[in-house]
Amino acid sequence: MSSEPGSSTSLESFSIFSTLRYDPQIPTVAAKFHADIYPDPKNSPYYLLSFHRDRLLNAATHFNWPKAIEFLQIDTIELSQFLDRSIPDPSKPWRLRIALDPKGNCTVDVNPTAPCSPRSLFIPSADIETEIATQSPPWMLYLDTQPIRPSAFTTHKTTVRDEYTSARERVGITSLLDPMEVLVFNPQGKVMEGSITTPYFRRRADTIDGGESGSGSGEDGFVWVTPPLSSGGNAGTTRRYALEKGFCVERVVNTDELVDGAECWLSNGVRGFIQAVVVLKR
Q1: Which Pfam families is this protein grouped with (predicted)?
Q2: Closest Cα partner for 108 from 116, 117, 99?
Q3: Can you give the CATH number for the domain in which 45 is found?
Q4: Is residue 5 part of a domain?
Q5: More exposed terminus of the chain, fewer Cβ within 10 Å: N or C?
Q6: What are the two backbone dihedrals, phi and then psi, of residue 224, each rounded to the nearest 5 degrees?
Q7: pLDDT one-digit tens code per residue, 158-194
Q8: Contact (Cβ atoms closer than 8 angstroms) between residue 11 and residue 67
């Protein structure tokens, strides 16, 4: 497959996609605990729905797919109605994979999803951390053994996923149900992202931008940081949520500054925010 966006081969060979959670509990929990920090539409059972539409639209625009762009001009009400037709049982949570091809054809694959606390779908706080910790142990976060070259296929979510699949295989991840993740990095040794998640690392606020803590700074003098898109990673929906609501700031994260046993967070559009531990020694 050609890796050059815009070639006839690439246009015929891949789709853009976004994966999100359908959960009937989201509107209730959003209204009760997170009304001020959860984006619209707050009454939707589709997690961060507008962000997923925007993500797909940005990808379609980058690859210059006019028919896909036209489809994605619909508002969130129309998009919800379109997705509703694919939900087998609206009383249960589901994992949805929304994919579009260059001709604007949209498919929605729906599968059962792993259970999680509805509150883990929202920006982490002290009480949420305690609730998540009591429900499941942290994920193990490994570092890939070889770099990945940044491209349009790492910035945007597409079906060109061989490099991510290989990274997962290299550290022994065999299933999406494994409580494990792998960090991918670029040839300059900068962390890009996780294979299916956005990572967040704890750093001293006085080491960020010359000592300016900015948003995301805690009372203990530490701040959560996530790699900037310039490192080559994906513009994820939960990443946008975390940045816009002040949970974290962007900062380059080099592989040589990772610490074995360090606690961190991961996030994605299906599981929300997940506690994790860096594992460098195996």
Answers
A1: Aminotran_4
A2: 99
A3: 3.30.470
A4: no
A5: C
A6: -90, 135
A7: 999 999 999 999 999 999 889 999 999 999 999 999 9
A8: no
Helices marked H in the chain: 8-13, 26-33, 49-62, 66-71, 76-84, 126-135, 152-155, 162-170, 237-244
Which residue range is the domain that position 22 belongs to?
A: 16-113
Treating both helix axes as pointing N-terminal to C-terminal, what angle do 76-84 and 49-62 enclose, rounded to 10 degrees? 100
User: Rounded to whole angstroms, how far apart are CA atoms 186 and 253?
Assistant: 11
Partnered with residue 208 across adjacent β-strands are none
pLDDT value at 126 more than 70: no
Cα–Cα distance measured from residue 141 to residue 261, given in angstroms and rounded to the nearest whole number: 9
Residue 255 sits in the same domain as residue 159:
yes
The amino acid at 19: T
Q: What is the CA radius of gyration of the chain?
A: 18
**Per the structure block, which two tokens stand in for 260?**
């074995």
Tell how strand 94-100 and strand 198-204 pair up.
unpaired
DSSP 209: G
Domain count for the chain, please give it: 2
Measured torsion, CA atoms of residues 34, 199, 265, 176, in degrees rounded to the nearest 10 = 100
- 42 in Cβ contact with 23 (< 8 Å): no
pLDDT tens digits for range 61-111 = 999 999 999 999 999 999 999 999 999 999 999 999 999 999 999 999 999
